[in-house]
Structure formats: structure tokens, C-alpha cells
Amino acid sequence: MTWFTATRTSEAVVTAEQQQVWDVLNDPAEVARLTPLVRRIEVDGDHWRWIMEEIPGLGISLAPAFTVLIETDEPSCITFTHDPPDGTKERAAVEGSYGLSPHEQGTRLDIEITVRVDLPLSRLAKPAVKAAMDGVLASIGRGFGRNLLDRLDADQVDVG
């Protein structure tokens, strides 16, 4: 078994009020509906357990589940840290944050996510696994972005 890691960052300005964006991102049922490949999110206090659909790639059947501790600083930051229940070994781990700040055209949203998976592959497979993980994260990110904009009835603003 070998741990493989991929990180994705993104930023956008959306034409929605900061509190509206916060309310959606702080609701596990909404986040599950908006995120491709997420079957459901189970909540136990400040812990969210993500149950994923089968993730395509590399000919390995992988339907990961992982637990994160959610920490919030309303309405500007949601951080999540891998924190499985005592005595539990999870083969996937996710950590990251949503940063929200006011913008003259709505809300600036900064997202950073690091995903780690423990796979029955050699370290020699790292380039192929990393490429597959990057592709899956990009696809999930695009789908999440589209779904979030639809849910907020908002647009993404080009500020560059």
C-alpha cells in the first residue's frame, strides 16, 4: 500500500452575497448535492463523514469514505482536517479550506483541497496515479463550481 497525494486550488468571484455562499458551503446536505461523486455526507457534531461513489481510474475499484473535522469562522472561513474516529483507519484523507471575502461584485471564494489515498500500488505508479487524481479533482471542481453557481442563481465574474 502506498499513499498518493494531489492538491487543487481555485479562486473565483461570484455574484452572490457572502452570507448566502456561506450558508450553502456550511450545509453538508447542500455540499453533498453540489459535489460530483459524493453519495452522501453523514454528520456527527463537527465531524462530516463523506461517502463517495466509485472513483474511476487506473483499473482499481475505489469508493472511498473519509472523516473531516469542520472548523468555522463565520462568515469567512471553513476549514476541514482529516480526523477519523478513534481506532478507524481510512484509506482516503481530505484536508483544505473555503475562504470567503466580500468583493464589490459579490463574494470572492478561495478553495484549497488536498486529497490523499492509500492504494495497493507501487510508488513507481506515482506519475500515473497523480495524473488520474489531478483529472478527477479537476472534474469534481468544475462540476461543483457549476452546481454552486446554479444553486446560488449567480454568475462567476471575470476579474482578471
What features would you describe in this structure?
It is built from 3 helices and 8 strands, in the order E-H-H-E-E-E-E-E-E-H-E. It is of the alpha+beta class and 160 residues long. The protein has a single domain, classed as Alpha-D-Glucose-1,6-Bisphosphate, Chain A, domain 4 (2-Layer Sandwich), CATH 3.30.530.20. It has an 8-stranded antiparallel beta sheet. 17% of the residues are buried. The mean pLDDT is 94.
Short description:
With about 160 residues, this protein is of the alpha+beta class. Helix content is about 25%, strand content about 45%. A hairpin with a 2-residue loop joins β6 (about 90-105) and β7 (about 105-120).
Labels describing this entry:
43% strand; 8-stranded antiparallel beta sheet; 160 residues; 8 strands; Alpha-D-Glucose-1,6-Bisphosphate, Chain A, domain 4; alpha+beta
